[in-house]
Amino acid sequence: MVFGAEVSNAACTIAEKFAARGNDVSDPVAVLTGGTGGLGREVAARLAGRGFRLAMTYLVPAEANEVEEALRLPEDRLMLKRVDWTDGEAANAVIQEVAESFGQINVVACLVGGWSGGRDVEETDDIRFERMIDLNLRTSFNAARAAIPHLRAAEWGRIIMIGSRSAIDPPSGQAMYNVAKAGVIALARSIADEVSDANVTSNVVLPALIDTPAFREVVPFANYVDWPTPGEIAAVIDFLASEDSSVINGAMIPVYGGS
Question: Which runs of consecutive H residues, i.e. helices, occur in the chain?
């Protein structure tokens, strides 16, 4: 997937704005897990436009190349790392590297996740069970666990996770996805209580369907008109990733659009 013209033009402006600015240690730092996906790219463009230094992770090298070319940020404002967030040790290592390189971490957006086809409970094998838990819940847990000490140490911190409408209104035929996303909600809200003594918040965004090429392939005959776009959901995440969102903690925020 590539950026649309609007995001690409915005990236050009961002690059020009920060080309001479360099690695200003006063600028906030955001870690975007799965940052090279469709939603991550939109979030990255918005945060970069607000002066964030970015650490973005990926699994597919071609996606990282596309993001680097589109954002056009100086090397000291953008870190791209290949990370498997299901690996707790790898998560700890990359979070530590980001903190040491940039001096702080203010935002962690846990954007890794996915759906691997639907099954009822009686049809769900161990492999699918573990895949959905690993991809959706374990990745968020590993990122948050590694980052919380650094968020506490910063002047302010934000954790944003991606749940799903299906976690609170679970349809049949995708039991383990529903369960995994319900776990993400419980994780985000548990952390919200745990960090309430600091200037750190933890919230979870609940999309339903998102208007991306991948979702259109899954449901090719659906009506996409009212589906929220990655850009629209990124706007919500962008606000949650700001100091102005400090009064929102432990929230489950629906971003269904008309889907």
Answer: 5-18, 38-49, 61-71, 88-102, 126-132, 139-153, 165-168, 175-194, 213-218, 230-240
Q: Residue holding tokens 């897990």?
A: 33
Domain boundaries, the chain: 5-255
Q: Are the C-beta atoms of residues 108 and 159 closer than 8 Å to each other?
A: yes
Active-site residue (options: 58, 177, 224, 256) = 177
The closest of 238, 240, 257 to 41, measured between CA atoms, is: 238
Burial 208-238 (b: 16+ CB within 10 A, else e): bbbbbeebeeeeeeeeeeebbbbbebbebbb
Would you call 224 a catalytic residue per the annotation?
no
pLDDT in tens, 77-112: 999 999 999 999 999 999 999 999 999 999 999 999
- Rounded CA-CA distance 116/111 in Å is 16
- CATH fold, domain 5-255, is Rossmann fold (3.40.50)
